[in-house]
Fold these 2 entries.
Entry 1:
Amino acid sequence: MSGTYTVRDSMTMLRRNLRHIRRYPSLSIMLVAQPILFLLLFVYVFGGTLGAGLPGHEGGGNRGDYLAFIMPGILFMTIASIALGTAISTATDMTTGIIARFRTMNIARLSVLTGHVLGAVIRTGCAVVIVTAFAFLLGFRSDAAPLGWLAAIGLLILIAFALTWLTVGMGLAADSVETASNTPLFLMILPFVSSGFVPTDAMPAGLRQFAEHQPFTPMINTLRALVTGAPTGSDRWLAIGWCILIALLGYLWSRRLFLRVPAT
Amino acid sequence: MTATNPAIEVAGLTKSYGEHAVLDGVELTVPQGTVYALLGPNGAGKTTIVNILSTLLAPGDGEIRVAGFDVRREPAGVRAVIGATGQFSAIDTLLTGRENLRLMADLTHLDRAAATAAVTMMLTRFDLADAADRRAQTYSGGMKRRLDLAMTLIARPQIIFLDEPTAGLDPRSRRNLWAIVREQVADGVTVLLTTQYLEEADQLADRIGVLDNGRLVAEGTAAELKRRVPGGCVSVRFTDTAGLAAAVSVNPQASTDTEALTLRLPGDGSIAGLRRLLDTLDDDRVAGLTVTSADLDDVFLALTGHAAEASAAEEIPA
Ligand SMILES: Nc1ncnc2c1ncn2[C@@H]1O[C@H](COP(=O)(O)OP(=O)(O)OP(=O)(O)O)[C@@H](O)[C@H]1O
Ligand SMILES: [Mg+2]
């Protein structure tokens, strides 16, 4: 019976999730502020120096070139930041009594989690728009065609979906809300060890190997290619593949954690 | 579910946490349309039973059927017919009362008009209309409890589990809740509730099971249980302190209340026992006499061999 109501129950839970966000906006504001602070920090504090080291610019790039270079990394961090919030809100939700009530009801079992994931994807969409608008204020311009932007949006949604299922799992696995706010931190650190903020060829050999092959690098490279109108190459398929793999693992993990009938 | 099928059937139910056996061979059968009360002190295993029956917790051994569905193999079938109000609040405190009820109505798959009507009806029925659009966070304990129950009932379940439904309610709210439970039963709903108050079990239940340390130590109607507890208690009120003092000197086992000039003695239920007591008293100094029947403490004492308080003190903090 619950199968036929999966969509309806998920939409009900999505409405619940969006209401929570509206009732408790401070977390969302903090999560959007995070990538904006990084943007300001990188453009104004590091941008002059790091821009000068960018390859492919006559006599080194400037602050503006650096802004264009890190934009995909910043967008990735925006997604990671919201995903971190999802781990926190999932863990918080699991501590409330209403979850036990949902478990005694004949509803689509995973709809609570789907509500969190869909809510997070919508939040990520808003955050990406805000951060991009901010970047435009700082002088960011894109040469990409509308189709490129459309593809970039599609990829951003896919990344958000993948990271969110992963962090929902982290939220479920965490024994406390504090733990849930710590475990996803690596999502905020790893973009620095990728092609997001400096070209990987400037890194020492071991680190560079890692940076070039970690899953976030093809995602960031593809985003960069899409928003600058460059060809995406094989990175595109790697990025999509990683997203699907992470989403699937995150989903299966969350599902297992949520569906087990506790023996204690 | 056929008419002959009991709503709840539990046979040989056990549950342990590591070495600690929490339920030890519980047997109970609740016919459709009746109320069963599980009476027991803190830590007796009441919540554990309710959680197992409502598919929240995996049972140890035993055969457990709810509406004919096996809780292990057919949990979805169980969930489709039950409604549960746990011991601890199961409401969404970030939502308003109305939104909480609407959430339940939507998850019960009522259509829009039916959902709106049901929500309005429940808000009125549970005295929450004035606070309907306030966040549940701001509700008093009693209001939260009422909302919790309304959320369970809006889905019109056939079998309801109520874990200490009146804990923390004032006398008026408690009576309202009793009335609601009776209405449900009149509609053919089966209710299993837990309580620490004999009076509540007495008021509501067709049958009462006394649970102690994970075992059902007694089962029967309220009258049957009380009959198993002899005596009750005799209280004698005196006109002055001298009268009380004189009575205490010949009845040293009695407990006294010097403020109220009252002497309390456990009775043994026999006329002879009562006569022996009266013979020790000075007629002119007695202002009044009451013989009360057993209360919960007496029932526990008689059936379990220890007082409710004592077993509460044993409870290991979770
Ligand atoms: N997760 C757990 N791990 C270990 N022991 C537990 C766990 N949950 C419950 N217990 C133990 O099981 C026993 C029964 O607990 P239960 O909550 O069923 O009691 P109860 O009758 O509902 O008590 P109360 O009136 O206090 O609500 C207690 O001794 C309790 O400490
Ligand atoms: Mg309990």
Note: The pocket of adenosine-5'-triphosphate (ligand 1) is lined by residues A 264; B 17, 20, 22, 40, 42-48, 87, 315-316, 318 (CB under 6 Å).
Entry 2:
Amino acid sequence: MNEKLNLKESTFISILKSMIRIRFFEENVAEIAKRQEIQCPVHLYIGQEAIASSICADLRNSDYVYSTHRSHGHYLAKGGDVNKIMAEIYCREEGCSRGRGGSMHVIDRNVGFMLSSPIVGGSISIAVGSALAAKMKNKGQVSVAFFGDGATDEGVFYESLNFAIVNKLPMIFVCENNSFSTHLPDFLRQSNTSVSERVKGFNINVDKVDGNNPFEIYKSVGKMIEKARNNEGPSLIECTTYRWLSHVGYWQDLDIGYRKKVDVEQWMNRCPIKFLANELIQNEVITQDEFIKLEEEIKNQINNAVIFAKNSSSPDPIFIMEGLYN
Amino acid sequence: MKKIKYSAAINQAQHLVMDKYESVIQIGVGINTPWYVGQTMNGLLNRYGEERMIDTPVSENATTGIAIGAALSGYRPILTFPRMDFMYYAMDQICNHAASLNYSLGGNSPVPLVIRAIINRKGEQAAQHSQAIHALFMHIPGLKVVMPSNAYDAKGMLIAAVEDNNPVIYIEDRELYEFESEVPEDYYTVSLDKANVELEGNDLTIVSSSYMMHQCRIAVKALAEKKISVDLIDLRSIKPIDSETILNSIRKTGKLLVVDGGWLTGGVAAEIISIVVTQGMQYLKSNPVRITLPDLPAPASFVLENAYYPDNTKIFQSAISLCL
Ligand SMILES: Cc1ncc(C[n+]2csc(CCOP(=O)(O)OP(=O)(O)O)c2C)c(N)n1
């Protein structure tokens, strides 16, 4: 264990903070959705926090990140403004997309969070475009595409992968394999349910890790980032994980018969936050008290974001056309 | 006759065609779950099994090609897109292949394919989950494009679409699913190229389709109270367009208001007005008026949505100004 922690203690405290921030954020969004304070559909990231947080830990603001319909975790992990994304989920003028996009269309260019696309597979090729730009600019930037296992069912995934490899782009493909594409489990959709195995014939650097274990993810992606920055080409990391809640919304979709309660419970017992917190406390990186204080701080931050969002104004219909052209 | 919901009418039609023709198969993302298709697929999986009800991975481009291939090889597939927004991945197969194959291969390669395309507007879902892109398909030679506005037509036109030997884009607006009308239980068809004069009047012609017909019906009632009588035409098909029915009406009223649920530029309303101006200018007593979405991606905020989507008030007001 100590060997793992030798990596960098402060990094894992940051990762833990990021995970807790995402968890509280999503729990709050679930609450406000339940209370019908928002109409905007929300795809919550609860259960998958370790992935975004560990992947983004060593990324710079100048590195690019692209996301999907399940955007909140990626946005926050990359350092996106928590007030602005909350206000966007409320579809307010002060939101990061001025209330034009909602939960599935978020942006924070200041920290390199480029966009999220709710079209499955829609942002992967665009991320490769940023990797192409990064290579041409030659300033050591990397581009990261987050996507689910469902997105690997779209042809554009393979086309993008191939292009990135052929052109040796500083690109990292992050597949969050939660084994579901809405209601369909992987084995009903895929000839080989392991994405990393499936793409091996492309001659790309791949790794498969436990997506609920920040140590594994961080270590693996660290090498990939280094490769990318050294112009040694793209990599793909497959992170196995599970989403705790329904595909969309705040409930647990046990009623519609595509997954079993025991499976959900088993995965909830493997909570990535509990896991990392325990490791850090047991190894005396932080104390229980410090952990609780940390949680309180982040809770406050999220509560303030909700207040910020609620106090934000609704977009004025007079300016509805604003933003169509630049 | 029994009143049933629009969604139930679609369901009945599918049961009937799958019963009658072994060659009818269904394919698409989420076709076996109400999450995607509401109540329109009820009972089909149980009755016809997974072999004829194929729920697919998200692979719209390939899935569309596969449906075309099956259609060329003796089947009559119904391919469903739970949102029109997801059809862009399939555009190459629809426009480059399904639409033009029969022509470019000399006329003996029919593609008997029905594409059910569902519009899901509103709900703060924004630009990539709210689109009504029927006009794009209207532009493509070789496609037929229909958009029924009531349960009776929904059933009859879906059956007719399955019987047709050409690719038919069959467009449903999810907001229509709960609306009821009288529908016979048995098998019948409604032709794919005739508009329906739903109400007769003398002062103004209103032409619309699909969900916007519903908004027009409300406006027309209010207009009747103002002693304005309307010829209300339900297009039913936007390709081909039944010009004759529209021109006959204009001959009588001399005034035209077109209401369409798509974007302004190059849209259905533009096409209708073009038909009337080029073929019936002499009957027009005033400039035709169109009500459409602005040329703008759908915004998320419901405040902006309310400004974005025209409703019966806007139709009423435009009709009043036209008739003053
Ligand atoms: C082109 C397209 N087809 C279908 C959908 C509907 N849809 C939304 S999310 C999703 C599943 C995505 O699964 P995955 O990529 O594994 O991401 P996860 O939801 O598991 O995070 C589907 C099919 C869509 N948004 N876009």
Note: The mean pLDDT of chain B is 98.
